[in-house]
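hiii, so i know i said id send this last week but things got crazy w the move. better late than never?? heres the sequnce for the chain we talked about at the cafe, plus the structure i predicted for it. fair warning i was half asleep when i ran it
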Amino acid sequence: MCLPHIIVKLFPGQSEDQMKELIDKIVQAVIETMHASEPSVSVSFEEIPNEKWANEVYKPDITLFLRRQRHSGMQAISA
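okay and structure toks below
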């Protein structure tokens, strides 16, 4: 059974409609890729101000991900 919870970190200021559309697309992608049922997928948002992005997102999350990619030989993921 797959019970994924996706946390999206982004700058503040997105509209409610944009957030709802993003949730719908993320949930659809998880359902299709992980064969999860819709009620089992949850998505949350963490709005991080620009001035805190480097310390709260880039250094702990993105830098670590890039290091793991290099060590595992994974290809870069881009949207």
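btw The radius of gyration is 15 Å. thought thatd interest u
miss u guys!!
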